[in-house]
Amino acid sequence: MGESPRFALTSTVLGAPDARELARFYRALLGWTVRADEPGWVVLAAPGGGAGLSFQTEDAYVRPVWPEEPGRQQMMLHLDIAVEDLGAAVERATALGADLADHQPQEDVRVCLDPAGHPFCLYTP
To answer: How many structural domains is the chain composed of?
Structure first.
């Protein structure tokens, strides 16, 4: 096997019933800027560079459940988001449209669900 080609992760893509709506939520939550906005596709850029977040409209989108339940759509990934003040971060996220998950598996982490149902974890490093 020869030399490996260079790989660079540029974005994580979240499916949603409405890409713009979900991008609007994360833009407000993270304070990131819009790098691309096309029908059914939005890309947010992280300040200072690095991998961004992209959002794709999926007509057959099925909202995941968390924690998982047999026979139901499970999450495929979740985002970990570092914050300085966990309580204030949860308050901000829920004010923007997130839901605090009923099940919280750790004391120092808060699992929230974005408006499309994707879980994300807020934590203090």
So the answer is: 2
